[in-house]
Here is the input.
Amino acid sequence: MKHPLARVATRADLRAIIGEWRQAGLRIGFVPTMGALHQGHLSLVGAALETCDRVVASIFINPRQFAPGEDLDVYPRMLDEDCDKLHAAGCHLAYCPSEPEMYPEGSLTNVRVETLSDLLDGGPRPHFFYGVATIVARLFIHVRPDVAVFGQKDYQQLQIIKRMTRDLGFEIEIIGAPTARHSDGLAHSSRNLYLSAKDRRGASGLFASLHRARTRIETGTKIEVALAEARNYLAKCGFSKIDYVTATHPETLETLPEAEAKKGAEGRLLGAGWFGKTRLIDNIAFRRPD
Ligand code: PAF
Here is the structure.
């Protein structure tokens, strides 16, 4: 039978359990989430279980990563269901703190990873990655894991967390786990819940467009040509707006112009687009032929 899932809401209760694990010499993995858990999150728990003895997942809808007018009020909240899923996935402890637990009254301190936070998704959502870095730093301090797992689906977030971990000297190994996908390629995402049945069909075009662009670039097509084809494809799939389809350096996320895309070098293709009010993102690695 599976061990029971412990659920705690305060830092003190969390530390009591984690303290015992530490004393027993156990390796602790951490998966931060905002709930509304799907296969993608559960695959992160699976990745943590591969290298850790105990896995903690947090569920906290972080108000500081939503701007006024975004979907904070309607963001899906389903704590009991989420905890059942974590239990079934083999997670040991759910940390579900309140807002004052994470942001004690009068909190003035935020974490800002310069430059990386201002590119791509940071353009239209300037508050977003500051909110993410701030909550993840606070969660790292509460949980003090050995390993933390983030999905490659949120690729820019992953690079920002890696950079923050390095810059602030957190002694935590950051693992970027592969994106969990539906059979048609669409990445699992809590926001897929907002898509109508028709939009859901078109949405799989995002991954298909990036996948095609990768094949084209890897077989010698110029980057700009492959990206233009991808944008056309997205429009045909019914995307109402395309924020970007771009080829970048895999760590700095700076645009990779044709002249700098060295043979054999790795890059990352990233795309973001809208179906009505739902914004989807995805990405894929590519390597120029030698
Ligand atoms: O990826 C997410 O769900 C969130 O951005 C995170 C990392 C849990 C921080 O709130």
Observations:
- The two ends are 51 Å apart (CA to CA).
- Residues 128-143 form the longest helix (16 residues).
- The chain has two domains: 6-177, 190-284.
